[in-house]
Predict the 3D structure of the following.
Amino acid sequence: MVITSVERNRKHRDRLSVFVDGRFAFTISEEDYLSLNLYEKSEITEETIEYIRNTVNFRDARSRAVRYLTLRIRTEKEVRDKLKSEGFDRECISRVIDELKAIGYINNQLYAQKYVFDRSKLKPMSKKMMKLQLLSKGISEETADEVLSDWKAEDSDVARSLVKRKFGKYDLGDEKILRKAYMFLAHRGFTGDTIREVLREFGAEPGDEQ
């Protein structure tokens, strides 16, 4: 078998697409391509191709994933999307994900717990909104529900705290201020009933249409 052509990947400039006997065979980083002394018109064995697919690319993908995870905790979906964006094939990505999950580098349960804790401190929102955010990051519904069930803060308490923090110095009897407060809480995912209940505690009289 002979390497008939090599093309630089348009999306991933540091990776090369290698064609053997006129057919696509594998992708590889330019650094690994050079270190293995590969070049066009050179012969290549099936064993070498399998070594590249199963060892070289796996090692490269795992290294990139670990570097990505050292920045902050990530979900399985985030790591998978990152490796896909860097040009690794599905089988290689799945092997990396499985290994990193096995050694605890990827833990969706821990991610969800940290996410809920951080959101409650930095950007409080309703449980419904937090669940939607977790689902969008690839957290399963079962895991999201389990983590949120352990979170004791009620939506009304969170909404009340937000009103005090954001609108405590304003007159909620003013229609414009009242509308801003209502929309702010709605944007954070609170239901209309919860919002009206909390705003009434501050002396406001929100209508059903708000």
